[in-house]
Design a protein that fits this description.
CATH superfamily of the largest domain: MFS general substrate transporter like domains
Number of helices: 18
Structural class: mainly alpha
CATH architecture of the largest domain: Up-down Bundle
Radius of gyration: 22 Å
CATH topology of the largest domain: Growth Hormone, Chain: A
Distance between the termini: 38 Å
Order of helices and strands: EHHHHHHHHHHEHHHHHHHH
Largest sheet: 2 strands, parallel
Number of strands: 2
Shape: globular
CATH class of the largest domain: Mainly Alpha
Length: about 450
């Protein structure tokens, strides 16, 4: 049995999941235990991050909190922005403090935005800037994704990382649907005058998650990042090109998820109950679809799947514009829901592009004379850093979507059509980018020397 040792600070120093004997005897059990708690922690983080997308539907004159549509959109923009900005420092923090210790902290700190929201929604007459400040603190839930993905990557061998990361990300994304389902339950049972019930339900859950993370998760020394990896990834053009694509997929998922209820209220005058009856459906289906995107990309390549996704998202956006012109609620819901499903698939396919691009570079480096070990190490180092950057930039796309919605619905026509037309233009840009950069035929590919095979490296198929 492979030896497992830990320092006095509780760090596992010897961790080699690529060693099949170690994986079967020790690694698999520890990895799955940490994955389960990571999924739960990230799930709750997403719920708190997106809880203001539910709370704004409760804010009305009935409880003395009658904010305008523009103010409500701002309340969902602020946590989206903060969550996006926190993703890079959260990704670094787990490499500095360890997966267990940072998960405990990142879970426990969720008590701040949750308790603050539960307090302020019961205080009519509270100034709007106080609501903005408390909504901003909910952004800490958005950072959990980056630290969780960075941590789980270390626990699993290359051959299982796609499944593990897909499950981790999909389970976390489901937190958006979960808090919206809870909002629907509250509205349908006690009405739209008890928003504190939504956030209050999470207080004991957060405490339990932090406690179980402290007792059952592990710190692994291998999670420590090599110096300069983030700087090197920032200088690589593919990091930013793929980040643009991730704006189109994850930015759409989180932006639409936060705005869905307000869009239905602004576009069709839906009541809170009517809006909540549909808002959970898109995030739920999009979260479930994310692992499918990774699986399809394993089979057909991330670039091809992403191209089809953006073509379909452009078509779905066209359906929404048509539904707006026809004032057809069912057609609008169908088009909007399709965008969630497609963005979920695209989240998986675009994320698969990152290791594939750097693995392709490793192939070329080996063919040019570099050692397989050095090329593989560089590929993994840059992939990890680029994943963090793309995750942060992609979530900022949700900010842009909600700002565009805010401007569109506050315009003279009070319509969301200008917003959807601008999104259509961005999807067209992503289509061109994939076609010109990632599906470009390379004339010398057939004559290039075959790379030396590297054990368990990430697949280089684009």
């Amino acid at each position: 049995m492979a030896e497992r040792t830990a320092t006095r600070r509780g760090w596992i120093e010897k961790w080699d999941p690529e060693d099949e004997r170690f994986w079967e005897s020790t690694g698999k059990r520890l990895a799955h235990r940490n994955l389960l708690l990571s999924v739960v922690s990230e799930h709750v983080g997403f719920s708190i991050w997106s809880m203001w997308s539910v709370l704004v539907l409760f804010l009305s004159e009935d409880i003395g909190l009658g904010f305008s549509a523009e103010q409500k959109f701002l309340l969902i923009v602020v946590p989206t922005l903060v969550g996006g900005l926190l993703r890079l420092p959260y990704s670094y923090a787990v490499t500095r403090f360890g997966g267990r210790d940072w998960t405990v902290f990142s879970a426990a700190i969720l008590l701040v935005p949750t308790g603050g929201a539960a307090y302020v929604v019961q205080r009519p007459g509270t100034p709007f800037w106080v609501f903005l400040l408390i909504a901003a603190t909910a952004g800490v839930g958005g950072g959990n994704f980056a630290s969780s993905m960075t941590n789980i990557t270390i626990f699993f061998p290359q051959r299982h990382q796609g499944w593990a990361l897909g499950l981790n990300a999909g389970g976390g994304n489901l937190g958006v649907a979960a808090v919206q389902l809870l909002g629907l339950l509250v509205i349908s049972t006690v009405g739209n005058t008890h928003p504190a019930w939504v956030v209050g339900a999470y207080l004991p859950v957060i405490a339990l998650v932090a406690l179980f993370a402290a007792l059952r998760m592990d710190n692994v020394a291998a999670v420590r990042a090599a110096p300069g990896a983030l700087r090197e990834a920032c200088a690589h053009p593919h990091t930013w090109l793929i980040s643009v694509l991730y704006i189109g997929t994850f930015g759409s998922f989180i932006g639409y998820g936060f705005a869905c209820g307000l869009v239905l209220q602004s576009q069709f005058g839906s009541t809170p109950l009517e809006a909540m009856s549909f808002t959970f459906l898109g995030p739920l289906l999009g979260s479930v679809a994310r692992p499918l995107g990774g699986w399809l990309s394993d089979r057909w390549g991330g670039a091809r799947v992403s191209l089809v996704v953006f073509l379909a998202m452009a078509a779905g956006t066209g359906v929404i514009v048509l539904a707006s012109a026809l004032v057809s609620f069912p057609l609008f819901i169908a088009g909007f829901t399709s965008l969630f499903v497609l963005s979920g698939i695209g989240n998986g396919s675009v994320y698969k592009l990152i290791p594939a691009v750097f693995a392709r570079e490793a192939d070329r480096a080996v063919a040019a004379g570099s050692t397989p070990q050095a090329s593989l190490a560089r590929s993994r180092r840059l992939s990890g850093a680029a994943l963090g950057i793309a995750g942060a930039v992609g979530s900022l796309g949700g900010v842009a979507i909600n700002l565009v919605f805010r401007a569109s619905y506050s315009g003279p026509d009070g319509s969301g059509v200008p917003a959807f037309l601008s999104f259509l233009g961005f999807y067209a840009l992503c289509i061109v980018l994939i076609r010109l950069v990632y599906l470009r035929r390379e004339p010398d590919a057939a004559s290039a020397p075959a790379p030396v095979p590297v054990r368990d490296r990430a697949p280089s198929r684009l």
